[in-house]
Specification:
By secondary structure, the chain is α+β, with helices and mostly antiparallel strands. It has 11 helices and 4 strands, in the order ββββααααααααααα.
Length: 281
């Protein structure tokens, strides 16, 4: 691998047997110049130009963002890949570095970072949230910056979205927002829920299970048709309320619920109502 262009001490554009690539690794081009040979043992990441736009964007980020920010971003990604036993799509190296740099700039200026999906992320994606907390420790250790938990949530979502072979995970932020809105609809009907309560956690878990699909896009957890028919007949008020929530969500997200899913929502309305108002039993 011969160096074509040095991006920073830890990254360079190289010529590898006639193919242009970006290589990254701690000190991979330290004290080297154009046409020098890169030591393969120092290379941790190799990017091939499959998407010219993303490839050029990655070059730009590596050449302009502070090296210490890029380095901590790579440590976060590498740790997450090992912890989850996966290889992320290369886009996360662009997205997370870009996002983290902007977040650090805002924190440095004293601008508050708010994440309206924080509790939903914490509940629905606990492994990714723990990796976000690890990122928080790394950022403090390497950059002496304390990031808020709202930012931990954003990092967790980047990790979640990057996770390969996970069905709808590329739509994770929208899906998480949709689950939150369904939960808010249930809360308006059955009673206001504390977003840190066990009731809220169970509700989110049920809604997430309700929306799960297999590789072909088919729902995994459809209820038995007889059970659906029985629930619709015996719990007409809750089912009507669930349908109203479904119509609201469909208008906002373009997602059409099945009767089985509406029954799940209706059952959650009944469960939460009974939990919050036991005297009505």
């Amino acid at each position: 691998m011969k160096i074509k262009k040095i991006l920073n001490n830890n990254a360079a554009v190289v010529n590898d047997h006639g193919e242009e690539k970006i290589v990254m690794g701690p000190g991979v081009v330290f004290q080297k110049g154009k046409n020098d040979v890169v030591d393969p043992s120092l290379v941790e990441k190799v990017f091939v130009m499959t998407d010219p736009k993303q490839y050029n964007h990655l070059q730009e980020i590596l050449g302009t963002l502070p090296e210490e920010e890029i380095a901590v971003t790579q440590q976060i990604i590498t740790f997450a890949e090992k912890a989850l036993g996966v290889t992320f799509h290369e886009h996360i190296h662009i997205a997370l570095a870009d996002h983290l740099s902007f977040a650090l700039e805002r924190i440095g200026k004293g601008i508050e970072i708010r994440n309206t999906l924080l509790e939903e992320i914490r509940i629905l994606y606990p492994r990714e949230f723990q990796l976000g907390l690890h990122a928080k420790r790394l950022i403090y250790e390497k950059l002496q910056v304390v990031i808020p938990e709202d930012e931990v949530g954003y990092i967790a979502m980047h990790i979640h979205t990057a996770w390969k072979n996970a069905g709808m995970r590329h739509k994770a932020p929208e899906k998480t927002a949709m689950i939150r809105d369904i939960a808010e609809g249930v809360g308006q009907v059955a009673g206001v829920l504390d977003r840190r309560s066990a009731n809220y956690e169970r509700l989110l878990t049920q809604l997430e299970n309700m929306l799960q699909t297999d590789e072909s896009g088919r729902l995994r957890n459809e209820l038995n048709p007889e059970l659906v028919a029985m629930a619709k007949m015996n719990f007409t008020e809750a089912y009507t309320q669930a349908r109203e929530i479904g119509e609201m969500v469909e208008e906002d997200y373009g997602y059409a619920f099945t009767e089985s899913q509406l029954v799940v929502i209706a059952m959650e309305i009944i469960r939460i109502d009974h939990r919050l108002h036991p005297s009505s039993d």
